[in-house]
Write a structure and sequence with these properties.
The chain is α+β, with helices and mostly antiparallel strands. Helix content is 21%, strand content 22%. It has a single domain, classed as HIT-like (HIT family, subunit A, 2-Layer Sandwich). The protein contains two helices and five strands, in the order αβββαββ. It has a five-stranded antiparallel beta sheet with strand order 1-2-3-5-4, covered by helices on one side. The longest helix has 17 residues. The chain is globular, with a radius of gyration of 14 Å. The structure holds zinc ion (ZN). The site of zinc ion has 6 residues, from helix 1.
Length: 112
């Protein structure tokens, strides 16, 4: 997607504070953090919605959750964290490339 900011970050056309990258996901710091630690985990494949899931994307998301869980300590999330996937207008999804917000580093109020 030519005009997708996350695809541009993945392609290295826009700088980001990357904390992890492999062949299928990238994790970087959110530019407008709402928690002490606020990371965005973005699959490199461009799709926007869970309604666009298929078996391959389900496998990808499953592996992604496994990676986040196994990396929690090195990401500074030993004391707990929250994952958020915003979907659509009412949820405030501003970038239409599926991404997982990773929030932690401090006690999180519900609904943050
Ligand atoms: Zn994209």
């Amino acid at each position: 997607m030519n005009d997708c900011i996350f695809c541009k970050i993945i392609a290295g056309e826009i700088p980001s504070a990357k904390v992890y990258e492999d062949d299928e996901i990238v994790i970087f710091k959110d530019i407008s953090p709402v928690a002490k630690i606020h990371l965005l985990c973005v699959p490199k494949e461009h799709f926007a919605y869970l309604s666009e899931m298929n078996a391959a994307r389900a496998d990808l998301l499953g592996r992604t959750l496994e990676k986040i869980g196994k990396m929690k300590d090195r990401l500074g999330l030993s004391e707990g964290y929250r994952l958020v996937i915003n979907q659509g207008e009412n949820a405030g999804q501003t970038v239409h490339h599926l991404h997982i917000h990773i929030l932690g580093g401090e006690p999180l109020p519900w609904g943050k």
